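Sequence in, structure out.
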Amino acid sequence: MFKNEILENERRRKIYALIEANPSVHLRELQRMTDIPLATLEYHLDYMLRKKVLFAESDAYHKRYYTKPVDAADKKVLCSFRQARMRDIILIVLANTKPKYQFLSDCMKIPHSTLSFYLKHLIDDNILAKERIGYDTFYTVRDEDRIVRLLVAYKSSFLDKIVDRTLKTWMETRFRSEPENAQAT
């Protein structure tokens, strides 16, 4: 059966379009977006998975859906972007050069234990890097280009003004500092 034939069903077409616009979306989030009963949604998702129209991957808490295969590292980043607090942490670290733990704590206004949990998760997924100098802990984004590429590609699915501001800041500082580095060499 061809993809077009599978997507002739109105509900499947709607589900597919939402997953295409929001890769890494999980079942409950998809159910809230579509307002389709959970059992019906699961039936259509399973059908499209069997026919290889969709791809799915389970993480520790959710089964996430994609319309095309995604690189493993990209999946980790997209999963983190889907969680507002983790996305905010990544964006703060991306926008600021080596922020300290205390700076992140002041910006996030969440308990230290919660911030530590999120940071540990992001470090374990190789999204952030942690560097200790004396008593201070600094954080950096491991692969800025990957993060920015994914933010640009999927920013419409995040509906977040901080994403737009961070991308604008990153682009301005990145391209302002590159000519200086080129002239120095």
